[in-house]
Structure prediction request, 466 residues.
Amino acid sequence: MNRQDTYNKWGEIATQKNKVDPKFYHFYRVKRGLRNADGTGVLAGLTTVSQVRGYEKRDEEIVPVEGRLFYRGIDIKDLIEGFEQEKRFGFDETVYLLLFGKLPSEEELAEFAGVMGELRTLPLNFPRDVLQTFRTRDVMNALTRSMLTLYSIDEQADELSVPNQVRQAMELISKINTLVPYAYYSMRQAFFNESLIIHSPDPKLCAAGNFLRLLRPNTEFTELEAKTLDVALILHADHGGGNNSTFTMRVTTSTMTDFYSSAAAALGSLKGPLHGGASGRVASMMANIRDTVGLDSSDTALRDYLFKILRGESYDKQGKLYGLGHAVYTLSDPRAEILREYARKLAKEKGREDEFNLFQRVETIGREAVLEHKNNPAMTVSSNVDFYSGFVYDCLGIPQELYTPLFAVARMVGWSAHRLELMSTSSKLMRPAYKSLGKDVPYIPMNQRVTGQSEDRTPSLPGHYS
Prediction:
């Protein structure tokens, strides 16, 4: 038996002995995924950083409402509209708002943006020693390793005072903006023999402009490109404390571990395809739809193909239309509504209006198809921010390998804000309960054990429930 066969054998044993029958979750009223029976999240904490409103509860019934997102009490639509009217980039201002709980004055913003710009430069030889020496095909893994390496060169890495946490937050928010393009080109050079492109950050540029400068071989970008990416970063900066990666940041922070370890844990959570990979799945699905039915197909042909996807007959056979539906939003996702308009402008600049129109048609027809397929009168379906983000990134020339890392560039802000909130408020260790289903069994001496056989440890429900 070769080594892989051995691992397969052990894998079968592990699967058999570790699987828990779903009936036990129901009997013990375990809220799987930390979700209530009606799909809402279990209340696990309090926060003032941001708020997501996707429904209302009236007499214990969920009532769908138009979605709204608030950063420190300010509606995200009002925030972005303010940046648009005053014709300025807003990401640094959003960072200030989420970290410190208020909008900065002109003087405060100038000082803050200046420091953030200076902090984007990585330590001397960091790209060579970390990104190019220890190679990985996954940029998210490179970012996680980079977080822990930055810990090793921070002389105050374990200092938990709030001022030091603020310093570390600003460092990580700034440096991850530079790390992502550097890690990408290091990966492409190592595994695909492409040119290693390393531009120096420009401290005078906004966060979006700096990212595009580092990613583009010629460092050039248009104002609309930078503005669109700026808005995308703002929209992804935070989304309440209950999303998986932010919850991971809060759980690890509750142990009083260092900032870098918590950031690495949050990155590991975001890397999971069920959390941070949605925009990539939408992009792949839309490419499949475009190649199968074409940009100019009739609504009937498009509808028929979407139903094939929903029935698990086409695309990835998972029976899902990615980018449609959300765990909290019901009637609409405000982030999707904002990004849709920027996608429209960008599509016009890039000559890709036909593709954008296909997205709109899939959004409209797909929502109707999902409702008909589910046959649930109480169900609501709206497009989410991931539906358009992949198209926007593609128009910006951002490769799909960077969709989740770019999410991390934005979400590092929310992670940092939630960490500062916990460090300023409470040191209570998070420790939920788990019920053991294991039976008490006797120890078996070695000479009485039989290869391939094991004692029955299958749990059973009490009394007649078995």
User: Anything to note?
Assistant: The beta strands are 50-58, 61-71, 74-75. The chain has 18 helices and three strands.
